[in-house]
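To whoever is on call:

I kicked off a structure prediction for a single chain this morning and the downstream step that reads the tokens threw a length-mismatch warning. I double-checked the sequence; it's 536 residues and nothing unusual in it as far as I can see. Pasting both halves so you can look.
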Amino acid sequence: MSVVPEATASGTAPSVEPQPQNLLPTPARSPSAAGTLTAAPSWWVRSADLQKQAVARAARPDYDAWLAHVKPASACVRPVRLAGTIATIEAATGRLLAERATADMPDGVIYKPCGNRRESVCPSCSKLYQRDAYQVVRSGLIGGKGVPEQVAHHPAVFPTFTAPGFGEVHTRAVKRHTCTRRTDCDCRPEPCHARRDISVCPHGVRLVCFARHAATDRNLGTPLCLDCYDHDAQAVWNLSAGELWRRTTIAVNRYVRRLCRARGIPYVAKVSGNGKVRMVPPVRLSFGKAAEMQRRGVVHFHAIVRLDGLDPTDPAAIVAPPAGIDAADLVDAIDHAARTVSFATEPHPAAPGGWRIGWGEQVLTKVITVAGAGEVTDAQVAAYLAKYATKSTEVTGHASTRLTDETVNVYADPDGTHTERLVEACWILGRPREWRRLRRWAHMLGFGGHFLTKSRRYSITFALLRHNRVVFRRTETAGPDAGEPVAEPTTLVVNFLEFVGSGWRTPADAMLANTSSALARDHQQAARQYLTTTAA
């Protein structure tokens, strides 16, 4: 079984593996001859037949050691290869206790997962990132992992901020859903752009479409007229979406503070870093958001806004909000900010007055509940944001790495498709020094922000989850948990490693490592189902 996409995508480099003396078991012709080992042909390592390469690697005496060595990165499509030394140092005195070089390890390197969050680049690493994102989002809604469980009783809402329209595009709208699962929706959509009076744009294109597009239709998100669509404004909006979100959070905070003052909620004294005391409202908003790339190539923001209290003696503590403000007030604050927040960009040679940046008209805010009686539950919100944390521009049909002067012509065309014109707009508008960020993020259609962000005190961090995972693996045993506390480590492990390459050395190595990982995942899933069935 092979789970490797292809050699070019997995970063393999054939014929770079040294030529070992492979040993293959010969067929048993007699009881005394059974299990006899003989040297395999050396050219099997360089053979074009992937099976012969895999057999040559598996027949080596150090195959078991190699398989255990690459286990941490066995499911990664393009692992990182590191070389150097690993030193063990006494924590108290700094004395060197031991030192080991990667040259003594299989392949002479250490394999580390690439850690890419994009599902189209590395499915394994993106799956791990998605699970961490789920824990980051949900712990801020129900508590756990260092977050107090009382946050489950704090008011929280789930707003969706959309981008404005830059031209008419092919859409799929379902007014009445009869399906039980929206992920497998097969309801009949409405006509795309049905009009009685068929209008024609200045470029001679009929701005009408009577088709009922399927969910997999490639025309979804493409403009009815490419020449009428404002690609420049959309590219600039993607670039300015992060600044628009920052201004929106400020507006929401100011609205809530004015509401506290109007309702007579008493202020508390807060000591700033320079020792000054000022009176502030006893509320604080915690945010978390995920960016979703739409098919038309523009980002939408799905956010979580949670209302917390403020403890003047311990600003880092997460306490309950004061009485007098509920989730309905958060909905009003978000709706007010979405309607009022807008700004103009800096002047550009193509637009001396700049571009106006603001949210679209479709802003939907739902109340989050843990009990399941509200509009949306915490599990649904966490799964929704974690899903989009691993997505990127693949939904638009465009997928590329960072563009340069040599590669931009492959993806940009002023007379090409919708995405090609967006890349062209980013590249042309990014010529001035003040607008060079457009060229830097041309491969993302202008959007240069993170796909999953949160405020400082919303929940835990990805770094903490990774650290806890490392500690768990180091203390993991095959026996039952004895409940004894783990002693503080007395030694430190210091790595002196450098990057020497990425990807597996040969397609056979990629196939064996990924197949072993797939079998391990199947075994783990079967064991989990067995335990669940036994407990039930």
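Update from on-call: the warning came from a stale cache, not from the record. Cleared it. Sanity check on the structure: The longest strand covers residues 491-502.
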